[in-house]
Amino acid sequence: MKKKTDLKKLEKRRKQVRGIGIRLLLLLLFIAMAYGANNRIEVSEYTYETSQLSFSFDGFRIVQLSDLHNKIFPKNNETLLREVRALEPDIIVLTGDAIDGKTHTDIPAALQFMEQAVQIAPVYYVSGNHEHAVQQDIFTQYLEKVKELGVRYLSNEAVQISTESGQTFTLIGMDDNSLQANILQTLTADAKDDFQVLLAHEPQYLTESYAPSGADLVLAGHAHGGQFRIPFVHQGIWAPDQGLFPKLTEGSFTEGDTTMYVSRGLGNSAFPLRLCNHPEIVSVTLRVVK
Ligand SMILES: [Fe+2]
């Protein structure tokens, strides 16, 4: 009788151990998935065809990095820089939130990254909402250092990007605080005969502002891919300023003659975790067709 009771106890113990084992395995699987979703970088490559540029821009490559939020990829961002280098960009554009302005501001980390990035290609940078969340005097000092490194910070400015043969297009960089103002219309009107690439952190103004301004190509971020993505259906769960099941979180969008590419970005803000949503580098190759 005693033996039977012992056997029952043993069986119960075995079941408990198996249950704990399965839970541990699931936890490890979740950790591995979460680590991958937050650290394994994906490159999204687009080819943008246009007849508006001279052939000297055929193959010109713009590499976009967005929403780094002071994330440091392994070995002082060497993983990220290696990916960028391999793309052989003609220019690199940073479309905002390079620093996190709320929970983990790390200005030395952002500067260290930029110092390396300018060795690869000219870097153009616009603010996101997080740059404006940093205390004003700290932000001013940060910008001085950014400029010293040779990064071109564009705050409601247009610059000419040129090839060796002297052909140009206009690159416009909007300050995140000015996206709803009329400044963009003025900047695009001044360069209305040029091919125009617009850097604007927040994608949700495509219909009301970017497309009516006449910009040809827009590069945006901000939405972090919707933070958690539902597998297979390419749908994010939530994004700032778009709410639940947001539309503009990754990929290509067209409104009239304007095309916008939205990056899922690279890092995280206050919410420290992405799921099914790998950090993303966007690479745009210009293809000239006549
Ligand atoms: Fe962001």
Overall description:
The structure is a single chain. This protein is α/β, with parallel strands linked by helices. It folds into 2 domains: 39 residues; 247 residues, Metallo-dependent phosphatases (Purple Acid Phosphatase, chain A, domain 2, 4-Layer Sandwich). The chain has 6 helices and 16 strands. A hairpin with a 5-residue loop joins strand 6 and strand 7. The structure holds fe (ii) ion. Fe (ii) ion binds next to loops.
Which descriptor suits the 3D outline? elongated
Termini separation? 92 Å
The SSE string, one letter per element, is HEEHEHEHEEEHEHEEEEEEEE
Class from secondary-structure proportions: alpha/beta
Report the C-alpha radius of gyration, rounded: 23 Å
Strand arrangement, major sheet: 1-16-2-3-4-5
Task: Please provide a brief summary of the model.
The chain is an alpha/beta fold and 290 residues long.
Q: Could you name the key traits of this structure?
A:
290 residues; alpha/beta; Purple Acid Phosphatase, chain A, domain 2; six-stranded mixed sheet; 6 helices; binds fe (ii) ion
Write the layout of secondary structure elements.
Layout lengths: L1 H38 L2 E9 L10 E5 L8 H13 L4 E5 L11 H11 L5 E4 L9 H13 L3 E2 L3 E6 L5 E6 L9 H8 L5 E4 L6 H8 L3 E4 L8 E2 L4 E2 L1 E2 L3 E2 L6 E5 L2 E5 L17 E9 L2
Parallel strand pairs: 1-16, 2-3, 3-4, 4-5, 7-8, 8-9, 9-15
Antiparallel strand pairs: 2-16, 6-7, 10-11, 12-13, 14-15
Helix pairs in contact: 2-3, 5-6
The structure holds fe (ii) ion.
The site of fe (ii) ion has 9 residues, from loops.
